[in-house]
Fold these 2 entries.
Entry 1:
Amino acid sequence: MNLGKFDHTPAWCPGCGNFPILKTLEKALDQAGIDRRKLVLTSGIGQAAKTPHYTRANVFNGLHGRALPAATGIKIANRDIEVVITSGDGDMYGEGGNHFIHAIRRNIPVKAFVHNNQVYGLTKGQASPTSDLGFITKIQTHGVRNTPFNPLAVAIVEDCPFVARTFSGDRDHLLAMMVAALQFTGGFVLLDILQPCVSFNRRNTNQWYRERVKPVDDSHDPFDRRAALEIALTWGDEIPIGIIYRSNRKSYFDD
Amino acid sequence: MDITIRIAGEAGQGLQTTGDLLVRVFTRLGLHVFSTQSYLSRIRGGLNWCDIRIEDKELFSGREQADLLVALNKDALDELRDQVTEGGMILFNGSAESGILGVDFSAIAKELVGSAVMANSVAAGAIIELLGYDIEELCRFLEVTFKKKGDEIIQNNVKCARQGAAMVSSQAGHIAAPKPTGSPECVCTGGEALGLGAATAGVSFATAYPMTPGTAVLTYLAGVSDEYGITVEQAEDEIAAVNMVCGAVYAGAVAMTTTSGGGFALMTEGVSLAGMMELPIVIHIAQRPGPATGLPTRTAQQDLKMVLYAGHGEFPRAIYTPGTLRQAYDLMRRAFETAHKYQSPVFILSDEFLVDIQKNIEPLDKIRRPIVQYIVEEAGPDYQRYTVTPDGISPRAVPGGEALVICDSDEHSESGHITEDLAARIRQQDKRMAKGKGILAEVIPPEVYGPAEATHLLVCWGSTYGPCREAVDRLNSGEPNFAMVHFSQVWPIDVEKVKKILTPQGLDSSLRKITFVEGNVTAQMASVLREQGIHLDCDTLLRYDGMPFSGEEIARRIEK
């Protein structure tokens, strides 16, 4: 049985937020002048975690939740390599939550692009760590009761040197954030990318995000930790996007 | 004639310091030394002891009873006084009573130099004197040891040692100790031998989440990390530890992680990842008794089957089980060589006993001699990571060159990209398994110690080497009927070779007795051999209380 031809087309639904993310990633890599031979795209498991297969790069598509430790090992083994993680909210904030906490503490200079659609796609629609309260699924039949994980706030509290959020539906913003992230060399980068899941998240739709996302004000000083935390804690009618926090903390390789 | 000195007390009383001091002085004197630890999982209090056995020839095991018990507190005296040989002596850190020599080490140190810290030197002085060795040798050693700390410290320690000796001088030489006849100078522990094996093999990245007794190897590597260029990373958990190693070897590092059974349980998905991605990872597992947290500071041989079957799916592997310090050093290197040659996970299975053994041995080569990694430099843009080859070994490139290196935990095509093509699946699964043949062809055959035609075989693996070997020597003091068969590699099994050793043709098998000596409840090695089709009518001699075997114990139980 030769099913080979099915492998080369993305396994995503039409309208999936992963498509604009993939397209923009390609553009951002070119714009940032990344040599594909010196780039490793790392991921865990999930729909977003398949992204590395659809680009031209070195690929380490490892275990569910374990993209960050693998990325850490790769970067330590060869610091000339650019390591970009493209994985989802379940992979990075759920199964890999402990690694997320400690990779930021370690301040290993890798770039985490987290496709955050607030739902589990590949396993067909269960709640993710970032699902909104009350979100009803086939498992969470009475709605989500767990406090949504706030990756930005956690990263800021840990003094992550680069914390940003963007939205897959705003290509220009997405591109600008990706390029800024790729050009940053000072340590761990968290880029949380809000993204609709057209099949399993009927609540946080493309439209829903579009009505709410709002670039952070130009007057915001990303080095102001308290102000950054305030922005990170904002979620609801308004969802701030942009570079939210910056710090000059030493990276893993700095003496 | 050999002597065992048992220094016992509570954690925090400086047992280790005194023990280490004596091991080095005995080595300087030219004695063969074999030292083991017995300690509880606590930092203060409890009852711990350090055994130092000395002899005029090489030693491989500890003894059950002590010839000289040095009790640093009342608990140690009460608990261990029954385990002293006939004609042995007890030296108590306090006042004398009938049959017990009393020397208050701390009080003497305080009086002499104003601090109890040097009580160790008082004790060491008394011990050397009781054994009839030259106290000057201890003083000279203290001078060398404390050279950096200045004259005052040296003089104070020497003063304490001399006073310790003076306190027992009426009993000098009371214990008939072995005559020094010259011995190797390199004092080494099992953990150090394993670590040095890794460092000299060129390990560039080592990770662990701290877990007794596996941590010893990481501690060693951290200590020499600048000298050998090793990045040592304490991971947030064992899952991270193994996945970091997977990432690092993918990018070209020589990398390992070290743990114990419980931590290894968490690593098993990573083992499977290395099987699928064909990553040359090395994992050291120092066993301790389970299940669960078990006895954290004790020894066991209970994880052979877990390591053999760890990781879902089917893929080849190798498991080395060193029995001596020299084997620990050599097999750690061998583990890296096998892992890289066959792009597969390889395991070093040791235990608390082996890791904590301290012994003087012929020096181990400290020169860094990196292993061959078999990384292809000339791979171009058409490179495919998982090209099918007859021996299953695909040329391995690492990222950063002309070739793009694609690795996936999903089933993949030759290119490395994810596939659900079932024919490709079979090709890749067959390719991965084919590497097992090469690993098998290079397997280390079991070592036979004693006459090959012995009528009674003691079969063992890993750290049981020493006690078993000594048991054979004891049992063979009359008719040489016994031999030991030791597996320093327990997987894969070369069935025909093993059969030839255990049940040679021409030997009436009904005349040969086979006993498996293992530190577990279910005789795991015997079971693994049976599973491979080696049908043995055998006995078992097992121990699972957390303490290591001794040669005399095995011999006694066999003779029963």
Note: Chain A has a mean pLDDT of 95.
Entry 2:
Amino acid sequence: MVRPDTTTPARSPLIGFAIAVAVLYFARDLLQPFAFALLLAFLLSPAVKRLEGWRIHRIPAALLVFVFTSAVFVVVGWMVANQLIQIVESLPQYQSNVSARIEVVKGKSKGFSDLIASLENMGTLTSAAPVRKDKEPLPVVVVEQSNIVETVRGYASELLKPLGTIALIMVFTIFMLIDREGLRNRLLRLMGQQKLQATTKAMDDAGQRVSRYVLLQFAVNAAFGFIIAAGLFFLNVPYFFLWGVLGIFLRFLPYIGPVIAALLPFALTLAVTDGWRTPFSVLGLFFVTEAIIGNFVEPLLYGVHTGLSAVAILVSAVFWTVLWGPVGLVLSTPLTVCLSVLGRHSPQLEFLNIVLGDEPVLTSEVIFYQRLLALDQQDALNVLDGLAKDQPLITIFDTIVLPALAIAERDRHTGQLDARRQEFIVQSINEFVTELAEAETLAPSEIAPRKTRVFCIPAHDAADEIAAAMCAHFLNQEKFPAIAFPVTESPGQLMKTLAVQPDDIVCISAVPPFAAGNARKVARDIRENGSNPLIIAALWTYNSSSEARLERLRKSLSLLVATSLSEVVAQVREIDQPTVTSPPF
Amino acid sequence: MAITTQIRHDGQVSVLCVQGRLILGEPSDAFRAAIEEMLQAGDQDIVVNFEEVPFADSAGVGALAVNFSNVRAAGGSLALVGAQKAVRDVLEITRLSDLIPLFENEREAIESLAVKRQAPPQAAN
């Protein structure tokens, strides 16, 4: 007996997510360097490719780029460290100035006196034994005297850990630069050969977007650093170049980076200047620069280029910081970009792109349909009005109204649409079409009648009927005498009674599902009743990928086939030969 | 938006007076339903009075054409009276005016249908 599967579909992604988080957390010592290396590889691979273009082999090209980049990092790091040491060394001469400021603060704010006292005593507290004011005896803790070997081991492990991480990053980066195709091929193999196209596209996309993001952020940070350095120069703040460079690198830390970058020169100016103006000018400079870049420049650049929503960037910063600490904060955006791209090209991970991406979650036709489902006709109309500002109406009907009608029909056929909503949707779209027709009806004097009449016949039901009315409207706009018929039992009989001529066109309007089958029935009925007009089967929104199927339909019934209003109009226009203008009627 | 319809009988001929704009949706549906009811009630010769119909869109004209076809299929005749210029223009442009007899006044239309009814049936083509 087969036991029923008790795992609900909703639970599986949660379990997968929990496992992924656990792996990311427990394997962080290995994954962090890997992620850093990946980021560096994305950043440096364009330079390696450029060198390869100059006929330098891959390995020397990668090594050259890597050595050059490392050299830049070492030089800048050395300069920054050197200047910082100079600052620390010169701080004691400003001690009296700092004490005077503390006195001022003490005098002005009594409430902070304890805090200030604590600050004053901070140095003493770290060097001298604590003085306890209470009378309780001190607890005695017996600590074994560690030997020299253990002490060295402790320091070594503290020192070796970051060095080991840096070495790991360097090794990973070099190998990624040298063997980037090999790495990509392994990933392609892992994801299966049947997904070759999707995976290749995902990796190319991820590479481009992450590279773009890193370069953009570097450019923005460089601009930030330049503005800060220039501003500090005009404020006569010492070491302005150092603060600018630090600003560039600290700004890679989302949210807290600029704060740290501002606090360092602020503290220095507190120590080296007499008044309050310069320190607060420094704070103001950082605040204004960051506010402009953070609120105007970055949303404009990153919103477009990373494909992440602003909320996703914020949430990802929190998530990666909780998981990996400060390293996670630095890596949060590029890592989230990679996840979003994977979600875009992998159906199983599509939810990632929906949650993280900045693309509209719902397409316009779905929003339009969703508004109608919510029985909100005005909102649905607003969707159309919004689009009508920069698109022709026929395009809006082709891309929004007809697809929405097709979704409604699909839902109706699968029993997901109740009668009340169905009626509301049909009636609403009816009204939109009517309003459109009334607003755009040409006066008879404007019309130069064409010879070709077009009879728009619904294939099966109300949806087909509305689409037929839309079709007739747009044909009228093109000055064709077009009639939209309601659903009838025998379209063939109707065409016979109306004495349809061979130079008339019958357009069979059919909304999916079952569009082709319904259109075929109507075409047969017309032919069997002795009429022989040119027939266009308008299979609205029919998937163009079914081209072979459309071709079979064309051949089997000698029909022309169109899938949009624009196509019908174009076909009718092509068939018709405009006649000489007849007298107005 | 909706149209109103009123049925009168004049001898063997029935008169349907329509009032309102004949457009897609409810108005066209109501017009079709009225003729359908008349056919079911056994009315065969029907005069449709359009004096109070200021406008007909392509769907309204389609509904008129279907009504005309249904009446013919039931062995009857349909004539149109008092079509305003906008409606008459559409009928002419679509050349439906070649099929559906148009009259200026109701009396003429009723008499025409009555005469037609009394005339011996023409041989089938």
Note: The CA atoms of residues 71 and 191 of chain A lie 37 Å apart.
